[in-house]
Amino acid sequence: MDILTLLPFIVLIGAMFLMTRSAKKKQAAAAQMRNDMQPGTGVRTIGGMYATVKEVHDDTVLLEVAPGVHAIYAKNSIGAVLDDAEYNRIVHGDDQELDADGTVVPDDASSLTGESDSAEVAKIDLAKDDTAEDAEVKDAKEVKDVKDAKDESKTDGDADSK
């Protein structure tokens, strides 16, 4: 056989070897992460639920999903073991960067306006405006009149074509 006929097969086998090798590395890293779990660490399941590890067994893990609520999960259902800072930031909303700056974002936009005097702020009238409603009715009548005029100019054999 000629080497050129075997070359595509060799390349294909090499590519398959490289793909399976990287997949095996990822599986080994995930298994190592699951084996290194300790009680008290925060985890994320493959379903996206965040919980705290209470007990680790051979094939299962006891998770505290809420205070006083425990659930047993398979070890391979743990998607990621999180460090304490990341777990507290996600679950409890603790953000160390905001605490250091002392900057607080207001709940409303009142601090963005220059004036804090609410008595001087003009009230917005949210009632319906009759003049705007009359204008809409008038516009609708004009559109109907235009359609009626187009329909009257057609004869029996005419069709709408564009």
Brief write-up:
With 162 residues, the chain is an alpha+beta fold.
What does this structure look like?
There is one protein chain. The protein has 162 residues and is α+β, with helices and mostly antiparallel strands. The protein is 43% helix and 18% strand. The protein has 4 helices and 5 strands, in the order αβββββααα. The chain has a 5-stranded antiparallel β-sheet. A hairpin with a 3-residue loop joins strand 2 (50-56) and strand 3. It is flat and about 80 Å long.
Could you give the topology of this structure?
Blueprint: H1 3-35, E1 42-45, E2 50-56, E3 60-66, E4 69-74, E5 78-82, H2 84-91, H3 96-101, H4 130-152
Terminal residue distance:
66 Å
Overall shape: flat
Low-confidence stretches: none
Major sheet attributes? 5 strands, antiparallel
Mean pLDDT: 78
Q: Please estimate the helix content.
A: 40-55%
Question: Could you spell the SSE succession in H and E letters?
Answer: HEEEEEHHH
What structural class is derived from the secondary structure elements?
A: alpha+beta
